[in-house]
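Hello, quick one for you while I still have it in my head. Could you read through the record and tell me how the tokens relate to the sequence? No rush at all, and the record is pasted right below.
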Amino acid sequence: MLNMNWLFCQYKSYKPGEKANYTIQYGVISSGIGSLEVKSDTLNGRSVWHAKFSARTTGLADAIFKVIDIYEVYIDPATELPVKLIRNIHEGRYRKYNEVLFDHKTRSDSAILTSDLTGQHIAPKGIHDIVSCFYFFRNNILPDGGKLKKGDMIELNISFTDQLYPIRLRFVGMEDVKIKGGKIKCYKFNPVTEVGRLFKTEEDVSFWFSADNNFLPVKIRFNIFVGAFLVELANYDGLVSPLGIKKK
């Protein structure tokens, strides 16, 4: 296990105004689009960063099983910890809407999460949600990515569907990923997945982050029992620096 010193760094790998759009493919079929963006906002008179992840089906997939999933999180710019999460899920006939407030100050040793659906929960100090952890990871872990060795493990605690999910990310190594306009050198990680209902092995999910000053998520692959989903970067705007593309 890699011993990380969880200090909030001053390095900024992203800024408000950044937006990345993705294509989602199931096998050889284009099945959806997604986006990840962050902007400046206010919440109850407080300056925050408003990050939003959205994904939806398109084409034939949309006609067969319509999906519109939206996760929004308000982040404290000073700590990069979530303040409020909104989860708005539409999957076929299934609907789920929930808001969660994060209190990182009342208790010195832990956080208090208050969910509209399940009430109050005590969580580990420094808890993240599924969206804010991406930005935290980019800004506080990947700037030291050059020190990573193959097999190193990084742990992050997140709250997802009102449950605690410790995420364990195994560093696989460096890989070149093809994107529009050329190739880009990336850090590759495999989150350790639970074998069972969805996954056959512990390495059935992979993430690729650009090995430049942005550490932008470039590609995600999910191998599940019914096939493989591939999420690839389509276009982007508002990055802190030019994406490190190797021209064709």
The chain has one domain: 19-241.
